[in-house]
Specification:
Blueprint (H helix, E strand, L loop, with lengths): L3 E6 L7 E7 L9 H15 L6 E6 L20 H20 L5 E5 L2 E3 L1 H7 L3 E5 L3 E3 L11 H11 L1 H9 L3 E3 H7 L4 E3 L4 H13 L3 H14 L8 H10 L12 H11 L7
Parallel strand pairs: 2-3, 3-4, 4-6, 5-7, 6-9
Antiparallel strand pairs: 1-2, 7-8
Helix pairs in contact: 1-2, 4-5
Pfam family, one: ECH_1
Organism: Paenacidovorax caeni
Keywords: Lyase
């Protein structure tokens, strides 16, 4: 089996950080079909892990993810039904599990972040990159377009102008370019990347986990594709007046602890 996606819970002073590692030796962590399926399983598990407070996703070694594992492509890309199954079930299954995850996700992006790597990064909440990271989706050189759901995801994250250049010119971009575009949260020197990402994950994990999950649910609802004018207001109304009360946290332990700690001028313990 080519490659794997593994999840390891971090120990140490700040529990609750789950490290997800993309690993495909010799292929710059390019995503194979089994890896897409594992990505889905891993994130579905994290979603139901009550102790998870933050996910840190990274590629093993010096690359985040160089795209898809092209060595597999002749086995299915030339048959429309098999190709549909790959994109709609394997790839979108993994990406949609990330998008549905209520636990905050921080991406550690080093080296190549191409194609599938950009798609995976687009599912993250905070993206921190090394200054020498490179981004793109030069699949036009391989003779095929980006699948519709994936193109919508990437264009929504990097912006339509950058997405058009990636897909139509096979253009690649620096970390500085995508920081200016708003895709990246921070860009740091390569030697500082690990410390910066860990610090971000630990800050998130130290905060109220229930509040983080509720914030992600609200933000996800706001990104629902508009079906008609005023859909943003409809999305808010569906949250406020839906079956799940968005204010049900009122009597929760972490809500009481946060307010009590502030009033007592002490650090909260969540």
């Amino acid at each position: 089996m080519a490659g794997e996606v593994i999840a390891v819970e971090e120990g140490g002073a700040q529990p609750g950080v789950v490290r997800v590692v993309l690993r495909n030796d010799g292929r710059l962590n390019a995503m194979s079909r089994p890896m897409w399926r594992q990505l889905r399983t891993v994130f579905e598990g994290i979603q139901h892990n009550a102790s998870a407070r933050c996910v840190l996703i990274e590629g093993e070694g010096e690359a985040f993810c160089a795209g898809g594992d092209i060595s597999e492509y002749p086995a299915f890309r030339f048959d429309a039904a098999l190709l549909r199954d790959f994109h709609e079930n394997d790839v979108w299954g993994g990406l949609s599990a990330m998008l549905a995850c209520d636990v905050p996700i921080v991406a550690r992006i080093a080296g190549a972040c191409m194609g599938a790597g950009v798609e995976i990064a687009s599912c993250c909440d905070i993206r921190i990159a090394a200054a020498n990271a490179r981004f793109g989706a030069p699949i036009a050189k391989l003779g095929f377009p980006m699948a519709p759901r994936e193109a919508e995801l990437v264009a929504g994250a990097v912006g339509e102008t950058i997405a058009r250049q990636m897909l139509l010119e096979a253009a690649t971009f620096s970390a500085a370019d995508l920081l200016a575009q708003g895709f990246l949260s921070r860009v740091v020197a390569p030697e500082a990347l690990q410390a910066e990402v860990l610090a971000s994950a630990r800050r998130i994990a130290a905060l109220a986990p229930g509040a983080a999950r509720l914030n992600k649910q609200t933000l996800r609802a706001l990104k629902t594709p508009p079906a008609q004018a005023g859909q943003a207001q409809t999305a808010i109304e569906s949250i406020v007046n839906g079956a799940a009360d968005p204010y049900a946290y009122a009597d929760s332990a972490e809500h009481r602890e946060g307010i009590s700690a502030f009033l007592a001028k002490r650090a909260p313990v969540f």
